[in-house]
Design a protein that fits this description.
- By secondary structure, this protein is mainly α.
- The protein is built from 13 helices and no strands.
- The protein has one domain: Up-down Bundle (Growth Hormone, Chain: A).
Length: 417
Amino acid sequence: MLKNWTILSALSPDVRKLIAAWGFISLGYYGIVGVLVNLYLLRLGYGIEFIGLFIAAGQGLWAAAALPIGALSRRIGLRTALILSPTFTGVGIGLMLLVEMLPSDLWTVWLLGGWLMAWIGATLLNVSSAPYLMLAARPEERNIVFSAQSAIIAFMGFAGGIIAGLAPTLAAGLLGLSLEDAAPYRIGLWLAPIANLCAVWLLMGISPLRVKKQDATQTAAKPPIRLLALLAAIVFLQAAGGGAARTFFNVFLDIGLRVPPAQIGAIMGIAQLLPVFAAMFAPQLLNRFGSATTLAIAGGGLMLSLLLLGIADHWLLAGIAFAVVVTMVGVSGIAYNIFGQELVHAQWRTISAAVVSIGLAVGWAMTAGVGGYLVEAVGFRNFFFLCALLVFGSVLVITGYNRGRRTVPAPAPSAAE
């Protein structure tokens, strides 16, 4: 552990600034937006089915845009792409929050337009961040760097969740409004664009880094389609399970268990804090077992936590289950970022990051888009059970990959950075 802290203290300014920017972005999305956007939409008069389709639309755009935006990121440079990311996200969320100034028949189109703009920003971030960190960090630092990134995401998500839980209550009290009104949630959501603006300021201070040009043989090589498809399948199956809990947990507490908004924010915020501690031990897991087996361990934990969430009939048990979900998602996020980057040669790393984004986006979009209808049809319990089954599929895929790797060694990644 002391060695990990020594490595962290020696990280380059570029790495520290990018990790800090992730913190502000996480405060805005995982904390503020993650807690409040669904509750805001409910107060605007939208139902669970719409919320699921709304979330899925952004994630579907993420999936569709990942590969072309990955190519764009490589063309315009990783630094430029990273700066554009929170810019698009902050502006998109800000536009959404102006919706009540418009006639009500324009609300759906306006909300969707702002949401899609925010997800273009998310796509830029996800396809550019991991390749940038692979270039900015030395090989011996990478496990620590990705773990530190996960920890800051978790901690700032925790802070944002606490703030998001308190903001509507404070706003309602100051304005003399009810928590059934939309305005208190809208006011709380304005903190997300502010957080993204802080991220833009940090990212403007990082250095431009590019993957070194490859020789003619490497340039002519075809992308490793089978490895990329394997990566996409693993990420998709785990994202489908984790996305189900992230998308519908606050709705489950609000509608299913009748938990007040401040308590929802506290539960989700505290749950976001646990991955901070998990990230501290993730480098040990990665060093001992490797990224693939660490993915399988996280998948097993995610499956069990979804089963626990399915049987929860009290907010405390549901909160514990959700905390484990978020923790396992955090560990798997560290593992699949490293796994995807180490799986391919340096020239394919932006493509690999795009494939991870596609797997995440399709997994989240599927459970979000179909989830609203499934919840209405079979209830929250059976919905979470079905998602646990999908995660079990990811464990089977990783197990098959590990067995195949023992008999047919995978080619070593290129040292070219």
